[in-house]
Amino acid sequence: MVDEISSFEKEANKNYGKLSESFPKGSINILSPDILNILITNAGKSNNIDYKSGDTTYTVTFSSYTKLDKDGMVGVYSDLPEDLDIREITFIVTGFHAKWDTEVTFSKEYMSVMPDRELKHLINFQRAILKTGIIK
pTM, whole model, 2 decimals? Predict the structure, then answer.
């Protein structure tokens, strides 16, 4: 776990170290390959999962995912995916801004949010997922 957090911090600094932490952004890179697996695995165990980093708790609720079917059509599904062979997965998250929800969508390489949120919160949210890990 320590190695994953250390690797995460290096990746965050490499990609975003020169930007102001209060700079609002609509998307950032997924900074660890473990994040999607953790989110999907934990979503199968409970409807609402809390991820904590520092003083901030992010409550995450699975919303939907999209997948390319065998006919080449994109389907939207509201049940949890059975594997990571998906195009996008969306969660509703509280904790970025007071009491308001934020729609967070993960694709293969990016995490996007709507509405835009401060960079420090986007990085801290991913950090919280890694620190919490898979819930037993």
Answer: 0.88
For the stretch 24-72, pLDDT in tens is 899 999 999 899 999 999 999 999 999 999 999 999 999 999 999 889 8
Q: Which long-range contacts (CB under 8 A, 24 or more apart) does 50-57 make?
A: 50/132, 51/125, 51/128, 51/129, 51/131, 51/132, 52/128, 52/131, 52/132, 53/124, 53/125, 53/127, 53/128, 53/131, 54/124, 56/95, 56/121, 56/124, 56/128, 57/95, 57/128
**Residues 50-62: tens digit of each pLDDT:** 999 999 999 999 9
